[in-house]
Amino acid sequence: MPRSTVTAPGASAVGPYSHAAEQHGFVYLSGQTPVVPGTATLVAGGIAEQTRQCFANLAAVLSAAGLGFDDVVKCSVFLTDMADFAAMNVVYAEVFTEPYPARTTIGVAALPLGATVEIEMIAARPAG
């Protein structure tokens, strides 16, 4: 079965990749940085504002796929400063409720455009 792709209105890809790819009922969302849709600039503010913008961008991709945050089974969060973990976690808890998706948080040296956070997800289509 070939993969299908998802394109979210207003979102841009800055390379040869799709916003999401789907295969066998799983939707793999590409990492989203805190870029304001329709611009090439990061949202103003610190880690909380950047994390919220990442989730807003991811919500647009999920919506374009006909899914929502309740369909997410795995998240990967990339931070340029692990000291931002607690503040990112507060925003993360605003988005997800129990049972929470699985998650990995990784400290990285740098992210595109100087972002401090990037988040990618895997979602699953409901059975039936």
Describe the structure.
It is built from 2 helices and 6 strands. The protein has one domain: RutC-like (60s Ribosomal Protein L30, Chain: A), CATH 3.30.1330. Helix 1 packs parallel to helix 2. The chain is of the alpha+beta class and 128 residues long. A 6-stranded mixed sheet has the order 1-2-3-6-4-5, with helices on one face. A hairpin with a 2-residue loop joins strand 2 and strand 3.
Strand order of the largest sheet: 1-2-3-6-4-5
Count of β-strands: 6
| Known CATH architecture | 2-Layer Sandwich
Measured between the Cα atoms of the first and last residue, the distance is 19 Å
Rg for CA atoms: 14 Å
Tally of individual helices:
2
**How many independent structural domains?**
1
Per CATH, what is the topology? Answer: 60s Ribosomal Protein L30, Chain: A
| Main sheet summary | 6 strands, mixed
Class of secondary structure makeup:
alpha+beta
Q: Which residues form runs of ≥5 with pLDDT under 50?
A: none
**Percent strand:** 25-35%
Mean pLDDT over the residues:
93
Order of helices and strands: EEEHEHEE
Assign a percent range to the helix content: 10-25%
Q: What is the 3D shape?
A: globular
CATH class: Alpha Beta
Task: Write a brief structural summary.
This protein has helices spanning 47-64, 85-95; strands at 4-6, 20-23, 26-32, 72-79, 102-107, 117-124.
Please tag this protein with its features.
alpha+beta; 60s Ribosomal Protein L30, Chain: A; 6-stranded mixed sheet; 2 helices; 23% helix; RidA; deaminase activity; YjgF/YER057c/UK114
